[in-house]
Amino acid sequence: MTDREFLRRLRHYARKQGLELRHQPGRGKGSHSMIWIGMRSTILREGELQAGLLRSMLRDLDIPKGDF
Question: Which residue of 25, 27, 30, 57 is surrounded by the most CB atoms within 10 Å?
Answer without folding.
Answer: 57
